[in-house]
């Protein structure tokens, strides 16, 4: 398996990312478990660096926390799949699996967002019925695109009230 060090590094990043927000993870324990996992996978092998990272470069392209959660909702199941195929008799593997299952359940809504995106890519835009529906919804889509975020509206109206005083 190529890029194991990078994928294990991303696992560290994911755990630390969620740990910093949830404060429910023992980061020292997670790092120790991941270090043991690196040894199990012999991730210091020379072929690991070939081709670059497999997950971290994808995370760098997304800046907002909610955007990253959508990507992470796809990465965490890959780690679960990988670890479920390893020796679960080892305590560090069981602990990492437990933490990943916890993370995966917190990402379930974000996974639904990914499914929505996938459904959009599958739309047959050359189908006349789909085109008719799309045209009927076009104005609503434009409205969503041009309306300012709710937080911006609220700040602006609060500012106006302050100025009138």
CATH class of the largest domain, named: Mainly Alpha
**Uncertain stretches of 5 or more adjacent residues:** none
Q: How many alpha or pi helices?
A: 8
The CATH architecture term of the largest domain is Up-down Bundle
The chain-level structural class is mainly alpha
- Average pLDDT for all residues: 81
Order of helices and strands: HHHHHHHH
Instruction: Quote the CATH topology of the largest domain.
Output: Growth Hormone, Chain: A
Number of strands: 0
Profile the largest sheet. Answer: none
Gyration radius (Cα, Å) is 22 Å
Form type: elongated
Domain count, please report it: 2
The first-to-last residue Cα distance is 66 Å
What portion of residues belong to β-strands?
under 5%
Tell me the helix content: over 70%
What structural keywords apply?
mainly alpha; 165 residues; 2 domains; 0% strand; Growth Hormone, Chain: A; 8 helices
Record the SSE blueprint.
Layout: H1 4-22, H2 27-41, H3 56-60, H4 65-84, H5 91-106, H6 108-121, H7 128-146, H8 150-164
Helix pairs in contact: 1-2, 2-5, 4-5, 4-6
What does this structure look like?
By secondary structure, this protein is mainly α. The chain has 2 domains: 4-113, Growth Hormone, Chain: A, CATH 1.20.1250; 124-164, no CATH class. The protein is built from 8 helices and no strands. The N and C termini lie far apart (66 Å). Belongs to the type II (or gamma) interferon family.
């Amino acid at each position: 398996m190529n890029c194991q060090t990078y994928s294990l590094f991303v696992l560290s990043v994911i755990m630390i990312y969620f740990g910093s927000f949830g404060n429910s993870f023992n980061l020292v324990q997670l790092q120790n478990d991941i270090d043991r996992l690196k040894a199990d996978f012999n991730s210091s092998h020379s072929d690991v660096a070939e081709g670059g990272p497999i997950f971290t470069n994808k995370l760098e392209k997304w800046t907002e926390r909610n955007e990253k959660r959508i990507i992470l909702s796809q990465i965490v199941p890959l780690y679960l799949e990988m670890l479920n195929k390893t020796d679960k008799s080892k305590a560090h593997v069981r602990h990492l699996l437990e933490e990943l299952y916890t993370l995966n359940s917190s990402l379930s809504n974000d996974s639904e967002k990914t499914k929505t995106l996938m459904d959009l890519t599958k739309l047959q835009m050359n189908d006349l019925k789909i085109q008719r529906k799309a045209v009927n919804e076009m104005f609503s889509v434009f409205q969503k695109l041009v309306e300012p975020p709710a937080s911006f509206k609220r700040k602006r109206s609060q500012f106006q009230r302050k100025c009138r005083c």
